[in-house]
Amino acid sequence: MAELMDITNQIRHAFPEKVQDIIEFRGEVTVIVDPSAILEVAHYCRYTEGLQFNLLSDLGGNDYFPAEPRFGISYVLYSMSLNHTIRLKVYLPNSDPTVDSVVSMWQGANWMEREIYDMFGVTFTGHPDMRRILMPFDWNGYPLRKDFPLGYEEVAFSFNNDRVMAKKPHPME
Amino acid sequence: MTLSRDELIHASGIISDEQTLETSLDQLRGLVSPAAFTGETMLLNMGPQHPSTHGVLRLLIELDGENVITVLPDIGFLHTGIEKNMESKTYEKALVMTDRIDYLNNQGNTLVFSLAVEKLCEIDVPLRAQYLRVIVAELQRINSHLIWLGTHIMDLGASSIFLYALREREYILDMFEEISGQRMMGNYNRPGGVWRDVTPRFMTQVHKFLKYLGPKLDDYEAIVTENPIFVDRTKGIGVISAEDAINWSVTGPYLRGSGVNLDWRKAAPYSCYDHFDFEVPLGTNGDVYDRYIIRLLEMRQSIRIIQQALDGLPTGPTRTTNRKFAPPPRAELGSSMEALIHHFKLWTEGFKAPVGEVYVRTESPRGELGVYMAGDGTSKPHRVRFRTPSFVNLQSIGVCSSGVLVADLVAIIGSIDIVLGDCDR
User: Fold this and answer.
1) What average pLDDT does chain A have?
2) Cβ of B270 under 8 Å from any chain A Cβ?
3) Is residue A93 assigned to a domain?
4) Using the beta-carbon criterion (under 8 Å), do A111 and B391 form an inter-chain contact?
5) For residue B19, what pLDDT is reported?
6) Residue A77: inside a domain, yes or no?
7) What's the DSSP call for residue A35?
8) A and B: number of Cβ contacts within 8 A
9) Using 50, 70 and 90 to split pLDDT, how confident is the model at A3?
10) Which domain holds residue A58?
11) Nearest-Cα residue of chain A relative to residue B381
12) Measured between alpha carbons, how far apart are the two ends of chain B, in Å?
């Protein structure tokens, strides 16, 4: 634990303006990073001696609607040589849910970022293949957003398709 | 006869009408080589109903003759919105859905979900329950590897192993039925421990099975490992280097085949795995053959772990006595008002988790199975994300399959060991 705090302090020291907060919860350390700096911080975490986070373990999103900034993207990093884990987190506003892609740092981020785009409508700039991945290509809306209804909707057939679709959320428009 | 560009594209299986495209040509442009648009190479659909894709996986393959140039997987056919559904259910109800994610690792899914709830709510788990969890998880690992062995070898043309493997798996399913009442979707692991203590019959079943399985594995090795056809079709096929594998976030036997020692049971022990003595088998070449060897060795290590867990199984309760999270025993309900209130609260409202987020990872038969769970102070999770190994491992299929033949692609898909339910959730 103390060792993890050293690491986070090192990151805070390297990016005093970009690290917004450091949270400790249940033995896990989260570094809240300014979205504009995620690529720099990721690069620092991956290649600095003593950090060496070479494995991107998980990349997931969360929607804090109606709070602002609305979206939280968590990067769980793991270092194989030093056996430690931290989480980087960026918060994105509803008005502009865009963040730099980390595919150039970890190729494994490719599908995980596509999934976040598919589920939350967060766009990753610099991603090589920003398409939907799990939902059908013509799906309207982003299912894991909190304002996306869970069932209890009228089922769309060809005769009432337009009416049903008009009621669906189109958060990007 | 010369075909126009549009006719060629149509012949390749892509419709050129931009409005109705699932993948527009512009999007494909960066993903396949330019030769695909002039007709020098062919684009071919494999799946989603192909028998060797182990479920519903569609691959868009760019072919030069019979050589694979690019593989573009298309997934999502089994997407059922489990993560979204969980947000409207209490933690206990959401647990029921976890077995359905990876249908060959049911007990492992309930385990990782329970671990996440326990970490978020700080619930203690009795030692006996932790040992039972290990026994069940390792049985499940053997089960999953047996299915993998049978289907993988069948993809390569030998059907007898499939029958043998399913015969062995049947014994494991019988044991799960004995402890949980259900063969596959057992829901045995619960937040705070396990559902019930195991029966004496289960213990004899496990003891008998461990004695039975070892010689059977020897038989399989005698049939497959030195088999010249199998060796020819798997050695040097689907090679992924250690650097590439790490870069693509690959985990599990797929990663260890390339010689990287990462097993979460060792690296971040959960549920008492640090009490047991076992080895992590590693490969050297990172090819299909090495992954096969590793999974066979892992089954033997699982036998070792189960044996140790049975020998050292402590006595005591199998579920936490914290009544805020686990229901009181039935007998108490008639005499204790407090027990009645706890029972009522748990089955109507459920327990409340604090505000915060945790990430828990376990080693599933396929790799890192993680759960990101965010609580918001209510009895329903704010967000549950399953970081599933099939989803993350499958994206690197393009790396290890460029230049191979179509028939080898079948071997590679099998060696990654994907479960499409796990992939699509």
Assistant:
1) 85
2) no
3) yes
4) yes
5) 40
6) yes
7) G
8) 107
9) confident
10) 2-134
11) A62
12) 47
Mean confidence (pLDDT) of chain B: 86
Q: How many helices (H) and strands (E) does chain A have?
A: 4, 7
Mean pLDDT of A83-111: 91
Q: What is the CATH number of the domain that holds A90?
A: 3.30.460.80
Q: Inter-chain contact B120–A26, Cβ cutoff 8 Å? A: yes
Q: What is the pTM of this model?
A: 0.89
| Residue numbers in A near B120 (CB within 8 A) | 26
**How many domains, in total, are found in chain A?**
1
φ, ψ (nearest 5 deg) of residue B268? -140, 80
Residue B110: the pLDDT is 93
Burial class (CB in 10 A: 0-12, 13-18, 19+), B36: buried
Q: Measured between CA atoms, how close is B150 to chain A, in angstroms?
A: 28
Mutate which of B363, B383, B384, B423 to test chain A, going by most A C-beta atoms within 10 A? B383
When CB atoms are compared, the residue of B31, B81, B249 closest to A108 is B249
Cβ count within 10 A of residue B72 = 17
Residue A6's pLDDT band (cuts 50, 70, 90):
confident
The dihedral through the CA atoms of B359, B362, B363, B367 has a sign that is negative
Q: Which residue of A has its CA nearest to B384?
A: A62
pLDDT score of B32 more than 90: no
* Separation of alpha carbons A7 and A11, rounded Å: 6
Q: How far is CA B235 from the centre of its chain?
A: 24
User: Sign (positive/negative) of CA torsion A154, A158, A162, A165?
Assistant: positive
Contacts of B383-386 spanning 24+ positions with Cβ under 8 A: B383/A62, B383/A63, B383/A144, B383/B83, B383/B87, B384/B83, B384/B86, B384/B87, B384/B94, B384/B113, B384/B116, B385/A58, B385/A60, B385/A61, B385/A62, B385/B83, B386/B82, B386/B83, B386/B98, B386/B101, B386/B109, B386/B425
**Token representation of residue B194:** 């396990």
Is residue B373 a contact partner of residue B206, using CB atoms and an 8 Å limit? no
Chain B residues with beta carbon closer than 8 angstroms to that of A71: none
- Give the ipTM: 0.86
Query: Cα–chain-centroid distance for residue A12?
Result: 20
Closest CA to B52 of B406, B425, B424, B403: B406
Q: Residue A162 domain-assigned?
A: no
Q: Give yes or no for B368 touching A (CB within 8 A).
A: yes
Which domains does chain B carry? 5-74 (no CATH), 82-320+351-424 (1.10.645.10)
> Is B10 touching A (CB cutoff 8 A)?
no
Q: Determine, yes or no, domain membership for A71.
A: yes
Dump pLDDT digits (tens) for B310-369. Answer: 999 999 889 888 888 888 888 888 898 999 999 998 888 888 899 999 999 999 999 999
Asked if residues B190 and B319 have their Cβ atoms less than 8 Å apart, the reply is yes
The residue assigned the tokens 């993560």 is B83
pLDDT at B412 over 50: yes
